[in-house]
Amino acid sequence: MDPQAPVTEVKGVGSVIARRLRSLGIETVEDLLFHCPREFQDRSRLQRIADLQPERHGCVRATVNWVSYTPGFYGRPPKVDALVEDGSGRIKCVWFGQPYMRSALKKGREYLFWGRVGVYKGLEFVNPAFEEADAGDSMPADFAGLVPVYPQTEGLSSKLIRKFVRTALDALESVPSVVPEPLLRSRSLLPRAAAFRSFHFPASKAEFENARRSLAYEEFLVMQTALALMSRSRRNAKGHSIVVSQATDARIRKRFPFAFTAAQERVIAEIRRDLANPFPMSRLLQGDVGSGKTAVALYAVLAAIANRFQASIMAPTEILAEQHYLRVSEYLAGTQVRIEFLRGAMPRKDKAAALERIASGQSHLVIGTHALIQDEVEFARLGLVVIDEQHKFGVLQRAALSWKGYCPDVLVMTATPIPRTLAMTVFSDLELSILDELPGGPRKVRNYWVPTKRRSAAYERLRGELAKGRQGFVMCPLIEESEKLEAAAATQVFEELRGRLAPYPVALLHGRMRPEEKHDIMQRFRAGEYKVLVSTSVIEVGIDVPAATVLLVEDCNRFGLSQLHQMRGRVGRGGDEASCIFIGDCTTEEAKRRIRALLRTNDGFEIAREDFLLRGPGEFFGTMQSGIPDLRVGDILRDEQILRTARKDAFDLVETNPLLSGDELAPLRETLERRYSKKLHLGTVG
Question: Which of 25, 125, 264, 644 supports an S-S bond with 115, CB 3.0-4.6 Å?
Answer without folding.
Answer: 125
